[in-house]
Amino acid sequence: MRPIAILGSTGSIGLSTLDVVRREPRRYRIIALAAGANLARLAAQVAEFRPRFVSVARPEDESRLRALLGGIRVAIASGPEGAEEAAARPDAELVVSAITGIAGLRPTMAAVRAGKTVALANKESMVTAGPFLRRAAARSGAAILPVDSEHSGVFQCLSGRDHALVRRVILTASGGPFLRTPLERLKTRTRSQALCHPRWRMGRKVTVDSATLMNKGLELIEARWLFDIEPARLDVLIHPQSVVHALVEMRDGSVLAQMGPTDMRIPIQYALTYPDRRPSAPAPLDLASVGKLEFLPVEEKRFPLLGVARAALDAGGTAPVALNAANEIAVEAFLAGRIGFCGIAGVVTDVMSRHRRTEPSGLAAVFAADREARAEAARIIAKRTLHD
Ligand SMILES: NC(=O)c1ccc[n+]([C@@H]2O[C@H](COP(=O)([O-])OP(=O)(O)OC[C@H]3O[C@@H](n4cnc5c(N)ncnc54)[C@H](OP(=O)(O)O)[C@@H]3O)[C@@H](O)[C@H]2O)c1
To answer: For residue 149, which atom of ligand 1 is closest to its CA?
Structure first.
């Protein structure tokens, strides 16, 4: 039985991971779960999977969770330290990192330092601290396996191949709910429209990021560090059907594609069973019923944040940290109804134009740059009106 810890167990990736585990209960043992504030869902998971350790975001929720659990015996901790403890437990061998945002960085780093196999969904940790995670993994012997469907696709296409033979890595993007919305109407798109993704059911933050295409920008930066591929060899194509998740173009012009149904349980399970492949729950891909596959270039006017993200990727240093922080604050403000949809790109662009890039010497410098960009984003938001 493979002992597993899941960080972000109550979220979309966490639930899909537990579904994979539920299908083959003899293969996996859940050792630890870390979640945020959804105590009812966490309590149900504890009752079903009987981990030894759980962590919640706030200290005051420890006793509330204990009350919900009745007599079930489990150690309970809280805060960033609790999530880090779940990530580094000696009795877990594989850690699924699926807390959303930079809150996932410290626990991911704890798992990497402890030499775990890390199934990485939390792209924000690679975006903000990719070089540090790579170095820590090289020291501890940790393996970092992608969960993001596009990166799982790249990983599968690259498997066993010399990177020197690769000309280009292309990530596909569905284009989200506003791919065909007239440009002049983008400003008035609402929260519920942005949260209505045509292909994937995901958490709120990543769903909004998919509507702005910031998600693909973050994924480019994630790919840069996950696969050690220079920015110039990374590209994005719009592919509304989301059947092809990634393309790898070889030096001789041959292009490898990874395809699959739009169900995160497939890449999650692959990370859990790698290098093995097990039968899985989703219905097989039926290409005849999909009919046609389209590929389109990215319209810059529609998706300005992809260009901003690419500039941050090229600049490196603290630029991706500021990009991610500004975006987290802007998406939060959009979801809270404080800025409009186009305000997200406006805020992130403003923060990036003021950001003075430095080379972070370690995680403390990463968090300092993160705090500074958050404060700048909050100042900019305070001055905006809803439809700026
Ligand atoms: N969903 C997808 O299909 C998908 C695909 C590729 C990559 N990803 C990436 O995977 C990550 C998770 O995405 P998601 O869609 O699963 O997000 P989600 O549904 O919003 O779930 C986020 C999880 O993180 C927990 N959490 C949030 N803040 C926390 C904190 N401070 N401490 C501890 N736990 C905290 C939440 O707990 P509570 O709910 O209990 O508050 C929840 O369990 C993101 O980085 C996303 O970009 C997601």
So the answer is: 6
Ligand 1, atom 20: closest residue by C-alpha: 203
Is 264 touching ligand 1 by the criterion CB < 6 Å? yes
Q: Are strands 28-34 and 53-56 parallel, antiparallel or unpaired?
A: parallel
| In a shared domain, residues 29 and 124 | yes
Q: What's the domain range around 380?
A: 316-388
Does 173 sit in the ligand 1 pocket, CB within 6 Å?
no
Percent of the chain exceeding pLDDT 90 equals 97
Query: Is 106 within 8 Å of 83 (Cβ atoms)?
Result: yes
Which ligand 1 atom is at minimum distance from the Cα of 204? 20
Given a contact cutoff of 8 angstroms between Cβ atoms, the answer to whether 296 and 281 are in contact is no
- On whether both 42 and 84 belong to a single domain, the answer is yes
d(CA 289, CA 311): 39
Summarize pLDDT for 39-57 with one digit per residue, the tens. Answer: 999 999 999 999 999 999 9
Is 273 a domain residue? no
User: Is 34 a pocket residue for ligand 1 (Cβ < 6 Å)?
Assistant: yes
For residue range 258-303, what is the model confidence (pLDDT) as tens digits? 999 999 999 999 999 999 999 998 999 999 999 999 999 999 999 9
Residue 276 lies in a domain: no
Distance from Cα 99 to the centre of ligand 1, integer Å: 4
**Inside any domain, residue 350:** yes
Cβ–ligand 1 contact at 83 (below 6 Å):
yes
* Number of domains making up the chain: 3
Alpha carbon distance 352, 318 (integer Å): 10
Q: Is the CB of 16 under 6 A from ligand 1?
A: no
Closest CA to 331 of 150, 202, 163, 206: 206
